């Protein structure tokens, strides 16, 4: 630390005294002599050499404080210094004047009172007054001047005798002590400042601090980026040259805090927080934090992704779609093409054909693949809940609403894809809202007012003929056209020829692994049987059948008999006849379910539920329909 202290004196005696002190204390402090004229240059040189604090005396200390930006410590004049000087001066003449800068005057006053000799005491605060002071002293008959280096020089110039004020070594020691304390405080202050700067620069938002006058005292790199300031120096500039929301800042300077204010800035928006810096209850300045709307959206997306990881991801890709029939290959090719654009796709096809599989694959082949994929089954949620689930709700929107509100599926899907399955089931009132969202690309939460911009690709699916629904007035024509910018038709399994074989092998292999059944092969009779079946529940039905057959299979070769066992009401009853034809009516029964009279449908569904012990999934499997079809049916039938 001592290397950062330097001494500069214009009096050789003081230099010698200081050298003695420094040597005695074993310090490494630089000591320089300079005449009065060269003091400024000598001080600047010392700063260049690394001095962080300078010790000087009297008028020179005053002079240095005027232009140096580092602290200057003055060696004090002491009572004894003056007493000694007066004694020396008295030997020359009794007509004595002490000419001192203000620091010395208090010690000198005590000497005058003590001696009571009518010694003249002159306080000087500016070099320019020396000449005039000496002239006046000559007129008054003064013969000896006691003073520092400057006073002595001027006294001699006007023909007066001069006596120096010597420097007490203890005063030098005290000055060194003071310099060390000041340096320690300076280091602590700098370390705090550097910490604050580091905090500012690692904060994920722009931060600006201003003083009471509204002048900028600090701003971090992100604030520069947000405000487009480049490297332009802004310290000391008034905030209104860069920040266009004076009402918030002025209120903060009056002591109020603001959080999450939205301010317009260059055709975009900024989220602004602004808090006053309070000292003894009064605002001494303010700190403003800024976030660009775009950055907030990116951050939100990342957070959402972290929170939702696993929950809203699409697992499947085009590669996971099994089957090489021409119709399926065409559908895959079209899906791949659709993945390269951002338009809405309407995916149509019978239940269980793989519409969601295709939706996931489109998402995963698109540029949004790293963003959320949110699948919503419009038929599976009660109408009353669907709106708030889709669009979210604002704090206190309805009784029981979580106090902080909730983001809806559209917000969750921000940056990614939303898959609206069973879109044909969307209530008409929500159809109008959805249309607005698709057109405006922004949502307003239920019970809220704030417009939230969203960037979401919409994929919708239906197993209904939507145009028929439009004709019946159940589906808005404008929404239909908005959704069907691109259409992807997934062919039913019966139109895919060889796919049944491929899929059967795939599913049997999968379930054999899952249940560790060790099935080595699938006998040709099993595959032929499967190929001869109509599969109204399409791939889902085939997968379910394969699962049951694997569980029932007792050997390493899965045969037609295992398939037949699986067909008969699932795991319970063995088939009465091994003939393929005997199996078909059961499948067709499932197929027919949907066209049976309502009463019969009701009976069968109730029965299936009883059989399934209340499980919707199992009941759907027993009936050979998808869960959502079953859900829809139950809703229609009021079950
Ligand atoms: N080509 C395929 N390859 C592998 N698995 C498939 C294929 N097609 C469908 N599946 C599987 O069949 C099941 C049903 O598919 P998916 O849910 O995508 O059908 P969906 O048409 O959306 O049905 P719904 O209309 O009932 O919602 C899923 O388990 C899916 O993984």
Q: Which band does the percent of strand residues land in?
A: 15-25%
Fill in the CATH topology of the largest domain.
Answer: Rossmann fold
CA-atom Rg in angstroms: 45 Å
Instruction: Tell me roughly what share of residues is in helical segments.
Output: 40-55%
- The CATH class assignment of the largest domain is Alpha Beta
What's the β-strand tally? 22
Question: Roughly what is the average pLDDT, rounded to an integer?
Answer: 84
- Characterize the overall form: rod-shaped
**CATH architecture descriptor of the largest domain:** 3-Layer(aba) Sandwich
The number of domains is: 5
Secondary-structure-derived class:
alpha/beta
If you had to describe this structure to a student in words, what would you say it looks like?
InterPro entries: AAA+_ATPase (IPR003593), AAA_lid_NorR (IPR058031), Homeodomain-like_sf (IPR009057), HTH_Fis (IPR002197), P-loop_NTPase (IPR027417), PAS (IPR000014), PAS-like_dom_sf (IPR035965), PAS_fold (IPR013767). Keywords: ATP-binding, DNA-binding, Nucleotide-binding, Transcription, Transcription regulation. It comes from Yanshouia hominis. This is Sigma 54-interacting transcriptional regulator. The chain is α/β, with parallel strands linked by helices. The protein has 5 domains: 87 residues, 3-Layer(aba) Sandwich (Rossmann fold), CATH 3.40.50; 89 residues, Rossmann fold (3-Layer(aba) Sandwich); 89 residues, 2-Layer Sandwich (Beta-Lactamase), CATH 3.30.450.20; 180 residues, Rossmann fold (3-Layer(aba) Sandwich); 136 residues, Helicase, Ruva Protein, domain 3, CATH 1.10.8. Helices cover 47% and strands 18% of the residues. It contains 26 helices and 22 strands. A 5-stranded antiparallel β-sheet has the order 10-9-13-12-11. A 5-stranded parallel β-sheet has the order 15-16-19-14-20. Strands 2-1-3-4 form a 4-stranded parallel β-sheet, with helices on both faces. Strand 3, helix 3 and strand 4 form a beta-alpha-beta unit. Helix 4 packs across helix 5 and helix 19 packs across helix 20. The protein is rod-shaped and about 135 Å long. Bound molecules: adenosine-5'-triphosphate. Adenosine-5'-triphosphate binds next to helix 13 and helix 21.
